[in-house]
Amino acid sequence: MSKVSVSLNVNGLTHQVVVEPRQTLADVLREECGLTGTHLGCEHGVCGACTVSLDGVPARACLIYGVMAEGMEIRTVESLAHGNDLHPLQRAFMRHHALQCGYCTPGFLMLLATSLEANPYRDAAEMRELISSNLCRCTGYQNIVAAAEDYAAELRAERSAA
Ligand code: FES
Ligand code: FES
Question: pLDDT tens-digit profile of 76-87?
Answer without folding.
Answer: 999 999 999 999
